[in-house]
Amino acid sequence: MPKGSPELTASRKEEIINACEQLYQTMSFKEITIKEIGEVTSFTRTSIYNYFQTKEEIFLALMQREYEQWAAEMNALAETHDAMTAAAFADALGHSLESHEQLLKLLAMNHYDMEENSRPERLTEFKVAYGASLDAVRGCVKKFFPATDSERFVFVFFPFLFGVYPYSVATEKQLTAMREAKMQFRMHSIYEIVSQCVIQLLGGAK
Q1: What global pTM score does this model have?
Q2: CATH at 18
Q3: Is the dihedral of CA 155, 157, 158, 164 positive or negative?
């Protein structure tokens, strides 16, 4: 890591993560390289290695940021509401994850690769953010629905998130293939899928 102020280091890391996020809007995980990311930043590709050793570490940092932001939203939900109905909580979770499509996309496509090809310290930083999101959602369930098993909710809900993106977003190629296969299907939004899952997990809790 090059010498410099913590502020400069944080700023450089953020710029690299932002560049990765920008490319991920139009390119696949496999297509994106550190060279491609470097071309979108204000410094050289070689400089990126001072902050991240692999592209997987950059993607993991992007997912870490998404988890941190989502956890903050869930904590704010718990802090600003004394009580919520199941429908209101499902609505809030649905809209929150709808605004974090990037997180769901990363979960669906490259989670294992990112963890496997990142240094232990980077993975630990990520797990802190992931754990905070578990705690935030668990805290909401405990507060608003004390009769619900919060551990069961988390145990089912978080693995479920890995499948949300593929069921809510499809390329034209995928849609064409499903039509030609004569599949009976209707794409559902992230909000619809998440909110309905939450309602089912809460079992009609008031």
Answers
A1: 0.91
A2: 1.10.10.60
A3: positive
